[in-house]
Every structure is written in C-alpha cells, then in structure tokens.
C-alpha cells in the first residue's frame, strides 16, 4: 500500500484521519471558520471553494487562499471545487473548472487538490501532471448524490482514478437501503485489497453514517466530520467521530 503524506499527516498508516470542511462564503468568515476548525485539531482541513463568493475572480480566490494558508500553518489543506452536478454549489463548464483548479495548483495554494473524475480525460491528466510538478497531491473524486452504483462500477471508478495517477481515490454515494451501504463497503474492501493507493469512501445520509464511522475497517483512510456546518449529508461532528473511532479502537 502506497503511503501518501499530506505535510506530516500520513494516509493509510493504519489509523483513520479526519478532515473538516470549510464552507464559508467570504474571506473574513473563512478565516474565522478556519480558526474555529483548527481549535478542534483535525488532521486535514478541506476548503470548499465552490462556496466562496466570487470564486471565478482569480484575484479574489488567490487572496483568500493565501490568507487561509497562512492561518493554517502546517495543517494540510485540501482544496476542492465541487461542481453542481457532483453535489457542489456552482455549475461551471469543464474549461472554467480546469481554469479554477489550475490557478490553485500553479500558485501552489494548497497541499492537496480534489480533481473530479468525470471531466474530459485529457484535461484531467494535464491537471494531475501539473499538480505533481508543483508538489501537490491529487485526491480524485466521484460523487453520486442520487443512488449507489453497483460494486463493479464503484471499483471501476476507483481503479480508473488509480490508473490516471491519482494519489488518493475517493467516492461518495447515496444509499437507498442497507444493501447499498454494504455495496459501498464491499467495493471499498475489494479496492483496498487490490489497488494499492489510499481510498476515501463513504455512503452519505443517515443510512450511510455507519460508513463514516467504520469505513476504516474496510479500507477507507479518511472520514469527513464537521465543526459547525456540514458539506454533505450524514457527516457527524468531529467530537462524535473521535468518540466513535476510539470506541472501535481504529
Ligand atoms: O468528497 C467529499 C466528501 C463529502 O462529499 C462527504 O460526503 O463527506 C464532503 C465533501 O466536502 C468532500 O469533498
């Protein structure tokens, strides 16, 4: 299993890591939220830039990013632009999506960058190379907010991310019944046995909460928890997550 380091945080070292999202819309509020989140000592902080008002203005994005990085110090930053069709806040075309992600990468504004799998392959490959040239880790992602794909399809997507050169492969699905939760966990287990890179997987909503707590048993290296506002349905507070992980001794 490849170990992936985000600053001093090692993914897949046997203990699950916790990431907390920042979803504020203005720079001042983002910094405030960052300070509150930092006090809870998560392993990773995710900045959901699709929530930033004026994110399409490069100067606005750069200024906020520099301010946030300074606030975070050594805490690893995962920067994510989640498009509307994957459950995010803003609908943009592929070109705009790549422009935003490129800006973050070229200016080295982050420790890791989220790259959605479902964009044109050429562009995805170019971004991955660019990120690696700048020493930035790539967490590739796929989100299904309506349903849970088959275990073959989940495995296929994770495999494709690995093939494209992702450092970490991530998938979030929406379960409709308990069998869907098992499907996500089973595909995670298979991928963890075979793919050799850290995985982040979860089923969303109330039904999926068990995967946010026990995902590590099946091979998920990181779980998303909240300090304040959630960025996806079913996220637990960081305090509840810590307690649950401690009870499971994972
Ligand atoms: O990819 C993910 C996972 C997530 O969707 C979740 O379900 O916890 C939350 C998002 O903020 C993050 O980018």
UniProtKB/TrEMBL annotation:
Organism superkingdom: Bacteria
CDD domains, alphabetized: DHQase_I
Active site: 143, 170
Catalytic activity: 3-dehydroquinate = 3-dehydroshikimate + H2O
Entry's EC annotation: 4.2.1.10
Nucleus is among the record's keywords: no
Binding residues for 3-dehydroquinate: 46-48, 82, 212, 231, 235
Pathway noted in the entry: Metabolic intermediate biosynthesis; chorismate biosynthesis; chorismate from D-erythrose 4-phosphate and phosphoenolpyruvate: step 3/7
Top-level EC class as recorded in UniProt: lyase
UniProt-listed Gene3D superfamilies: Aldolase class I (3.20.20.70)
The entry's keywords: Amino-acid biosynthesis, Aromatic amino acid biosynthesis, Lyase, Schiff base
Keyword flag RNA-binding: no
Single Gene Ontology BP annotation: chorismate biosynthetic process
UniProt GO molecular function: 3-dehydroquinate dehydratase activity
Complex and partners: Homodimer.
NCBIfam families listed in its UniProt record: aroD (TIGR01093)
Record-stated family: Belongs to the type-I 3-dehydroquinase family.
Protein function: Involved in the third step of the chorismate pathway, which leads to the biosynthesis of aromatic amino acids. Catalyzes the cis-dehydration of 3-dehydroquinate (DHQ) and introduces the first double bond of the aromatic ring to yield 3-dehydroshikimate.
Name used for this protein in its record: 3-dehydroquinate dehydratase
